[in-house]
Protein 1
Amino acid sequence: MSIVIRPYAAGDRAVVIGLVHQLNLYEDGISADRARDVKAAEACLDSDLARVARDGGAVMVAVDGRDVVGMMCFVLEQPQPYLRAEIAQVGWVSELVIDERHRGQGIGTALLEEAERLARSHGMRRLMIGAIVGNHIARKAYERFGFRPAVMELSKDLE
């Protein structure tokens, strides 16, 4: 296996939508709140692409031979006034998914290394990523990469 990380191209759309759909289905099995239809995955990719176009960043894909086997969306967050100036603007990995048939092969690490490279190239001193509560596999992988818990978000469903 020889993984190449490259920018997303329009020809990757169908495969990337399939990857985002896989992620939504996987996370729904944990949280029971994710949209399970392909239209939601399309909307997610479109939202990522719009956010990158607006705020800066990149959607990257991991390719094994001719096959796209993973994707990552990296965005530049607007500076946060409550953070110290040197870390006020952060890079954010808003999506990271590896095709279920290719997990455990270092592809996620390669995409995170690319996110770190992108963050550094923009002068960022902090990189952020999220994982839904209960996704212990993702959390452990991110912590092995050097991430540490920083913020806890709470939700309340209103009836």
Note: Residues 3-145 form a domain with the Aminopeptidase fold (CATH 3.40.630.30).
Protein 2
Amino acid sequence: MLTEERQQKILEILRKKGVVKINELVNLTDTSESTIRRDLTYLEGIHELKRIHGGATLLKGRFNEPSYKEKQDQYISEKSRIAKYAVTLIEEGDCIYLDAGTTTFNMIQYMDIKDIAVVTNGLKHIDALVERNINAYILGGSVKARTKAVVGSNALKNLEKFRFDKCFLGTNAIHLEYGFTTPDPEEAVLKENAIQLSKEAFVLADESKFGEVAFIKIADLKAATIITNSEVEDYERYAKKTRLKVVTK
């Protein structure tokens, strides 16, 4: 396979999957790992993709919002590890806010603590919480079909009535200068207020979110502890601005 042909194939695979590992590309292109690494370096240099630990992901537009289904199918094992660790931070008697993200949704399967109260704006989340007999509340407001989230002014008014021990949020992007950002202004307002209404705030994010910038700012990095799956590029610089917990198992 010619170099240009192979690189186009890599981009086609990425457009279909959103994220791909090096070993997958080795098998799909029938070439060596070193060749694939060189291809990824070149394609990143011309701004066609972003390299991540062990693979690559598509560059994201600042206003681009993947659907819930698209997010659900990406970084499955990484999200599971992050979610499992996040649940260990919940204590008996806690009142928590659970954001409408796919990683926060994964937390529910590990929740064995019954003496807690959970407030969420996630349509998917509320069914799963009720099925586990967890004391749960859902915000009222407009339904955003693409992300299965309840948003809008009514949701914000509902949220402002609560006070939380901890909140667990997702984010589309994490950047050293621009902090936590997301494509949707309505979701950004809810996330920002959840942080302000909580004693402790945690952002659950796989490694692909680092170095990215989306449309609307949620908060500065210092506002929350980041739980992620890998020691990312510029780890030391991030560690100076926020609290990081890297979950590898």
Note: The mean pLDDT is 90.
Protein 3
Amino acid sequence: MCHMTADTLDELHRMADKIGMERRWFQAPPKASHPHYDIPESKRAKALALGAQEVCQRTALHYAARLGLEWAEAQSDTVRQIKYERTLIRTQSYARVLKDTQL
């Protein structure tokens, strides 16, 4: 199992649909620390074949915070917005490293 996040909630749900995940498996606060899907190994392989990218835990944290911020803004959850904004600031260098390696 692994977590699947994305740049946007729409992108996350589109990929989940493509790999056969049911929307009811989507996890978001307060039951989860950030919006994501837990995907099994078989669906992970399919997501990678469709263009998903593996990232280290630090980079995943940055993208999870970006997704969480989008979710929190849509929910008008200001407490979580602040939490995700702080995480984004703290993890910004991780995202730069990923971007630099993709050039």
Note: The longest strand covers residues 2-4.
Protein 4
Amino acid sequence: MTPRITSEFWVKAYLTRLRVMNIPAFLISRGDAAAGAVLVKINTLDGNAAAYQRSYDTDGKRIWVPLSEGTDAEVEDALNRQRKYDPDIWVIEVEDKQGRSLLDQDGLSG
């Protein structure tokens, strides 16, 4: 069994990895430090965006799945609905014209 890390620890590590790669990212909403859900919004700076949430695949492995894709306004609406449903969520906004999130890299699935 893989040890679980806190949401706050994961968010700090993710923001550091993005910073090292010179990808601008901002903490939009701070959630529960221990177990708050984490959502990542990718803003491509052309009016479009996508938001992803952590989930599990059929083998119990953590994966990232789309929450919303479309215009920046549509994705913001989806994130606002999630905040109303769960005020303890973390929201990170990544701003990258190429749409890089690094979420597919090793170590960022958990």
Note: Helices lie at 7-20, 72-85.
